[in-house]
Amino acid sequence: METEVSIDEGVGEGNREERRPRLLRAEGSVLSEEFIEGLERQADATAQQLALHISSLHASLHAMQTFKMSADNTTAAVSTAVAQMHGFLTKCQQLNQDLPPIDDLAKQIKDLRRTLDLFEMLTLRFGRT
C-alpha cells in the first residue's frame, strides 16, 4: 500500500500559494520524512544559490556589454581623431608649400616701406628749402 507524503509539510514557510507535488511513498520505505524534509531544504538552498549565481552572471554580462560598447565608441573616436589629424597635417604641408611666395611678398613690402620712408625723408628735406 502506498502513502501520499507532502514534501512541503512542516517546512515552516507558512501557507504557500503554489503547492508542490506530493511524493508517493511505499509503506515501510527507508526514506523518513525528516530525510525528505532535509533534502527539500537542501534543494531550496541550492535553488537560491543558483538564482544568486545566475543574477551575478547577468550583472557580469551587463558589465561586459557596457565595456564592449565603451571600447567600440573609443575605437570610433580614435579613428575619427586620426583621420582628422591626417587632414590637418596635409593642410599644414600645403600651407608650408604656399608660404615661400608670401615670404617673398613680405620682403618686397619691406623694401617698398624702406623706399617710401626714404622718399618721405627726401621730400621733407628738399621741400623745406
How would you describe this structure in keywords?
129 residues; mainly alpha; two-stranded antiparallel ribbon; 1 helix; disordered N terminus; BORCS6_C
What's this entry about, in short?
This protein has 129 residues and is mainly α. Helices cover 74% and strands 8% of the residues. The N and C termini lie far apart (149 Å).
Topology of this protein?
Layout: E1 2-6, E2 22-26, H1 33-128
Antiparallel strand pairs: 1-2
Region (Disordered): 1-20
Protein name: BLOC-1-related complex subunit 6 C-terminal helix domain-containing protein
Pfam family, one: BORCS6
Task: Give a written overview of the molecule.
- Residues 1-11 have a biased composition (Acidic residues).
- This is BLOC-1-related complex subunit 6 C-terminal helix domain-containing protein.
- It comes from Acanthamoeba castellanii (strain ATCC 30010 / Neff).
- Residues 1-20 are annotated as: Disordered.
- The protein is mainly alpha-helical.
- The protein contains 1 helix and 2 strands, in the order ββα.
